[in-house]
Amino acid sequence: MHSISPPSHSDLTFETPEDPLAAAVWNALNEIKDPCHLLAGHDLSIVDLGLINRVDVICDRLEVGITFTDTSCVFAYKIVHALEDLAPTLPGVTSVKVVPETYPIWTESRLTPKARALYADKAAMFGFVRNRPSECQT
């Protein structure tokens, strides 16, 4: 078994010449769109949201550890099925096992810069803007 590390949040190019499977996996994961954001007209993937905790390769099987933004996510099954459907698209992979994980918990700190920008725009639109430190001084 070996783990496939995610690219850093600042570099989501998913080019890993020394490990073509890692590049294929992360590119495929990045194509799975979050159903809630998709319904709202936003192009955010499960990678953008920081849902993927780990990807392990065990022989010819991938095991994907995922933390949902909310444990009561009504669209979790769509994401799980999309992950399971990846197997035939990846070289040498015959199955994908999805392991929902409750730890680490999901927080906004897991967002990519793309998702963080969307969240900041939405927060500002609804008036949820944090004061800048200079505005807090009296």
Write up what this structure looks like.
The protein is of the alpha+beta class. The protein has a single domain (about 1-135), classed as GMP Synthetase, Chain A, domain 3, CATH 3.30.300.130. It is about 30% helix and about 15% strand. The chain is built from five helices and four strands, in the order βααββαβαα. The protein has helices spanning about 20-30, 35-40, 75-85, 115-125, 135, and strands spanning about 1-5, 50-60, 60-65, 95-100. The protein has a four-stranded mixed sheet with strand order 1-2-3-4, covered by helices on one side. The radius of gyration is 17 Å and the shape is elongated.
How would you briefly describe this protein structure?
This protein has 138 residues and is an alpha+beta fold. It has helices at residues 20-31, 35-39, 76-84, 113-125, 133-136; strands at 2-3, 52-58, 61-66, 95-100.
For the biggest sheet, the summary is: 4 strands, mixed
Low-confidence parts lasting 5 or more residues at pLDDT below 50? 9-13
- In oligomeric terms, what are we looking at? single chain
**Structural class by secondary-structure content:** alpha+beta
The CATH fourth-level homologous superfamily: Fe-S cluster assembly (FSCA)
Overall tally of domains: 1
- The total of beta strands comes to 4
Cα end-to-end separation: 57 Å
* CATH 2nd-level architecture: 2-Layer Sandwich
CATH class: Alpha Beta
Fraction of helical residues = 25-40%
Mean pLDDT: 83
Instruction: Give the SSE string.
Output: EHHEEHEHH
Radius of gyration: 17 Å
Largest beta sheet: what is the strand line-up?
A: 1-2-3-4
CATH topology: GMP Synthetase, Chain A, domain 3
Global shape: elongated
Helical stretch count? 5
Strand portion: 15-25%
